[in-house]
Design goal:
The protein is an alpha/beta fold. It is built from ten helices and eleven strands. The structure holds phosphoric acid mono(formamide)ester (CP).
């Protein structure tokens, strides 16, 4: 069976297919219809690192397809706290579950886990590596919002800002957007937190027009999407933490949007955002502003994750046959 470990494994056709399946999931995700298409199936939802959205939305998505979920969090839930390997844990969990979602602080760990099992494994974030389901829901959001605005992906200009070094969501998203090249991408990161050069070179070879700017000063009026990410201090080395002192402001707030961006700019963030003062993150002063798409993103996480399960487990053609009205 196949896994979803990285955007690398998805072609443009695969992504388009997932978007179409997700659109068909909307009546279920918005609780107008129910299905039992995954009745009897069990999901192992294994989180070795903190999560709100990804953990709960994968759980809800599997449940809304009629399946059951073994939901676990933290190293202490498992015998890995006693030194059990990823390999043994994977072999054991494969005997209990039909699909596994896993988040882990080490890059490559989810792939290592997946190599020991034939059960489909979804990478829900492997340290600073990738977070493919987040990129898919971000792309689904952009696609949906652009359709409403009458914009095309081909002419899009996306600004990615914040921690582009440790932000796994931007690593997956830039790879995904490279499937839709040509498209313009501008990267703005604090010093030391830049997007890895290797990744920039790779997506540029695939046709993305990537520009790097040092700050949020200047004109961004032709940007369609501002995608902000949190500075991930928990991933800093001790040396980086000690010397980290920003001389410029990287906050995306109402003043930035009103003075430097166009009126229809979409503001996105994978969340969580750091709402503490001087966090250099997406400011809460944009709450309630229609340009702020962050909670439309979180809502879109349900149909997209349902589409991922249905496709990996091969039931996507049965969804429409199995729909019933919500009885409550
Ligand atoms: N976007 C995201 O991965 O959020 P959580 O860490 O809360 O799952």
């Amino acid at each position: 069976s196949s896994h979803l470990l990285s955007i690398d494994s998805l072609s443009r056709d695969d992504i388009d297919h997932l978007v179409r399946v997700a659109a068909r999931m909307e009546p279920i995700a918005s609780r107008r219809k129910i299905t039992r298409v995954l009745e009897g199936a069990v999901l192992g939802n294994l989180f070795f690192e903190a999560s709100t959205r990804t953990r709960v939305s994968f759980h809800a998505a599997f449940s809304r397809l009629g399946g059951s979920v073994c939901d676990t969090t933290g190293f202490t839930f498992s015998s890995m706290a006693k030194g059990e390997s990823l390999y043994d844990t994977s072999r054991v969990m494969s005997g209990y579950c039909d699909a596994i979602v896993m988040r882990h602080p080490d890059q490559g760990s989810v792939a290592e886990f997946a190599a020991a099992t034939n059960v489909p494994v979804i990478n829900a974030g492997d340290g600073p590596g990738e977070h493919p389901s987040q990129a898919l829901l971000d792309f689904y959001t952009i696609d949906k919002e652009f359709a409403l605005q009458g914009k095309t992906l081909r002419d899009a200009h996306v600004l990615m800002t914040g921690d582009l070094k440790y932000g796994r969501t931007v690593h997956s998203l830039i790879k995904l957007l490279s499937r839709y090249a040509p498209m313009r991408i501008t990267l703005v990161a604090p010093p030391g937190l830049e997007m890895p050069n290797q990744l920039i070179e790779r997506v540029s070879r695939q046709g993305l027009d990537v520009a790097v700017r040092e700050s949020l000063a200047g004109d961004f009026s032709d940007v369609d999407v501002v995608y902000t990410t949190r500075i991930q201090k928990e991933r800093f080395t001790a040396e980086m933490s000690e010397g980290f002192n920003l001389s410029r402001d990287f906050t995306v707030d109402r003043a930035f949007l009103d003075s430097r961006c166009g009126p229809a700019t979409l503001v996105m963030h994978p969340l969580p955002r750091d709402s503490r003062p001087a966090a250099n993150d997406l400011d809460i002063d944009l709450n309630g502003d229609p340009r702020l798409a962050i909670f439309r993103q979180t809502d879109n996480g349900i149909p997209v994750r349902m589409a991922i399960f249905a496709t990996l487990l091969g039931v996507e053609e049965r969804i429409d046959q199995d729909l019933r009205d919500v009885p409550w």
